[in-house]
Write a structure and sequence with these properties.
The protein has 423 residues and is α/β, with parallel strands linked by helices. The protein contains 13 helices and 11 strands. It has an 11-stranded mixed β-sheet, sandwiched between helices. The longest helix has 27 residues.
């Protein structure tokens, strides 16, 4: 493991930076002027080595010769890049624990909870106030999970709407560029700097769906804490949202846990195709959990992949139909951030329940915005939770607008007010 002295910001920051746009004259407004960005270790920054959460990856690749596209766009938008952050090894985890670099602080708690991953250090840095914006990546939940665990707003965009060039790939069918902030309005502004291609407007009012089988992934207590306060606030947005309509996300006899298998096989096959040769050649010292996942990925056959890809296409078609003119509300994660030191079995159970939720947007290539909910002052010992809105392809801007409206009506979504409430 890298010594703690070399990982700063309560375990979040690998490398402190001070990068601004070289443009001497801006010919258009700079909406993010003066704001700071913490960048996940999977993004190229010219003149620096990209580590991808792995010392072996960093040592076996030269320094980048150009910035990642998203980095360049944020710089052009007026941002200053201040840090390269710790991430889960090879981005193949949603826990936030790295065998080589340690576990970044989850500042919503005392130092006994994981931050979620794989954009772990980025979420930690933003939640600590070390940066205004976190540039992460989301394949299977790697922005949404740490945002929920650390009490942040976050977005996984429609697949393909933000340029991923210059970011280390994991699984091209699912890879997206994601963002995290402490403020909903800033998330909307920053996302608009990066989003490309046509936007699909939501109808007014949009049909508001509640995924009952998604809420079943949580305990009754967690589901109540999520649905209660936000449903009241959403009810006040009559000009934007219809009355809630309960629905089942899976209506074909399968379950969301079954969808995890579809995601796992499709993602794993692509991951091995992307990184298998490097692993065979370099033979890196992969940490616990990561090693086993790569071994699993290496054993997925082309026939299994083809079968699950067919199922994925059917799921995507189902979601396209379900979400036409609609927004789906689900929990972002199945529970609050777990304590450190869970057994492998406990972590796998957490991973399955969480992927049952995050795989929905992934399998459909859909945009998802997560909104933090903090406990009331009398709910001592409980941490932040995340509630998510999923829309049809291209409705990213509409989802962000709803998130901003909701953040003004639910005081518990105030991240800075929520920090420190948890004992």
């Amino acid at each position: 493991m890298v010594t703690t002295a070399s990982v700063r910001g309560n375990g979040a920051v690998l490398e402190e930076l001070d990068l601004e746009s070289n443009s001497s004259a801006q010919v258009r407004p700079v909406p993010l002027s003066g704001l700071t960005v913490a960048v996940k270790d999977s993004y190229d920054i010219a003149g620096h080595r990209t580590g991808n959460g792995s010392p072996a990856w960093r040592d076996s690749h030269p320094a980048a010769t150009a910035n990642a596209s998203a980095v360049d766009k944020l710089l052009a938008g007026g941002c200053r890049i201040v840090a390269r952050c710790v991430m889960d090894e090879m981005a193949y985890s949603i826990e936030g624990q790295n065998h080589h670099y340690g576990t970044p602080l989850n500042p919503a708690y005392n130092d006994d909870r994981i931050p979620g991953g794989s954009s772990s250090g980025t979420a930690s840095a933003v939640a600590q106030g070390l940066a205004d914006i976190g540039l992460g990546g989301d394949t299977g939940g790697s922005v949404r999970v740490p945002a929920a665990f650390c009490g942040l707003f976050g977005i996984r965009p429609t697949h393909g709407r933000i340029d991923v060039r210059g970011s280390v790939p994991l699984s091209s069918a699912f890879d997206t560029v994601g963002l995290m902030t402490r403020d909903a309005a800033l998330l909307e502004t920053a996302a608009k700097v990066l989003l490309e291609g046509p936007s699909t407007p939501l109808p007014t009012p949009v049909r508001w769906l509640v995924g009952t089988d998604a809420f079943d992934m949580c305990s009754k207590d967690v589901a109540t804490r999520l649905y209660g306060p936000l449903s009241a606030a959403m009810g006040e947005l009559g000009e934007v949202l219809s009355a809630p309509v309960e629905t089942t996300v899976c209506d074909d006899g399968s379950s969301l846990v079954d969808w995890v298998d579809v995601f796992r096989v499709c993602q794993g096959h692509e991951i091995w195709r992307t990184h298998g040769e490097w692993i065979r050649t370099v033979q890196p010292d992969l940490g616990p959990g990561i090693k086993e996942r790569f071994e699993m990925a290496s054993g997925i056959t082309d026939e299994e992949y083809a079968s699950m890809s067919s199922r994925r296409a059917a799921i995507a078609a189902r979601l396209d139909k379900l979400l036409e003119g609609s927004v789906l509300m689900i929990p972002t994660v199945s529970d609050e951030a777990p304590r450190k030191g869970l057994s492998g079995t406990e972590l796998q159970q957490l991973r399955t329940r969480t992927l049952a939720l995050t795989s929905i947007a992934g399998l459909g290539g859909l945009p998802q915005v997560t909104i933090p909910l903090f406990p009331s002052d009398d709910a001592e010992g409980k941490g932040p939770l995340g509630i998510s809105l999923i829309g049809s392809k291209g409705t990213d801007e509409g989802l962000l607008s709803i998130a901003v409206a909701l953040s003004k009506r639910v005081p518990a979504t105030d991240v800075e007010a929520g920090m420190g409430r948890v004992s």
